[in-house]
Amino acid sequence: MNVNTSCYLTPYSLNQNTGKGEHGKPYPLTEEDHDDSAYRENGFNIFVSNNIALERSLPDIRHANCKHKMYLERLPNTSIIIPFHNEGWTSLLRTIHSIINRTPESLIAEIIMVDDFSDRAIEKNDKVFSNYRIVINIAK
Predict the structure, then answer these.
(1) 17-55 as b/e: b if 16+ CB within 10 A
(2) Pick from 2, 27, 39, 68: CA 20 to 30 A from residue 85's CA?
(3) Contacts (Cβ under 8 Å, ≥6 apart) of 20
(4) Around Cβ 112, how many Cβ atoms within 10 Å?
(5) 3-138 homologous superfamily
(6) How far is it, in rounded angstroms, from Cα 100 to Cα 95?
(7) CA 31, 37, 83: angle at the middle one, nearest 5?
(8) Residue 21 main-chain phi, psi, to 5 deg
(9) Which is nearest to 53 in space by CA: 94, 25, 88, 109?
(10) Is 35 helix (H, G, I), strand (E, B) or coil?
(11) pLDDT in tens, 78-134
């Protein structure tokens, strides 16, 4: 059994980016940025989501024991399935960017996004996905 002592998972935050929402910090809103309709439509403030970098840094919140866990050198790849319904597009993109940036490429067979009867149109062309098989399945 081969073991990788450097930890198979990519660290959550290797960069020192600065900006709103970086390192999981709150996004400061001005009085004019407060809009309750953004919360009603998405369950979160889409204005904030649209203004946070897609490849933002995050703190490493793993349990201390997990940070030193050793993984097999060879792990099987997997399909990642993301169901969504009327989701804000930037939050979906941020999820996919996080998966791609924090998971070794050899472990990702494909990313399947399942649209569960959304009323909104979805965008399918983000250049970061060109190296990955991303399937957008519309369940209608």
Answers:
(1) eeeebbeeeeeeeeeeeeeeebeeeeeebbebbeebebe
(2) 27
(3) 27, 28, 48, 51, 52
(4) 15
(5) Spore Coat Polysaccharide Biosynthesis Protein SpsA; Chain A (3.90.550.10)
(6) 9
(7) 125
(8) 85, -5
(9) 94
(10) coil
(11) 999 988 888 888 888 888 888 888 888 889 998 888 888 887 766 655 555 565 566
pLDDT digit string (tens) for 20-70?
A: 888 888 888 777 766 666 677 777 778 888 888 888 888 888 888 888 888
Instruction: Output the pTM of the full model.
Output: 0.71
Q: What are phi and psi of 109, to 5 degrees?
A: -75, -45
- Which tokens in the block code for residue 101? 């940036």
The token pair at 67 is: 């940070």
**Domains in the chain: boundaries:** 3-138
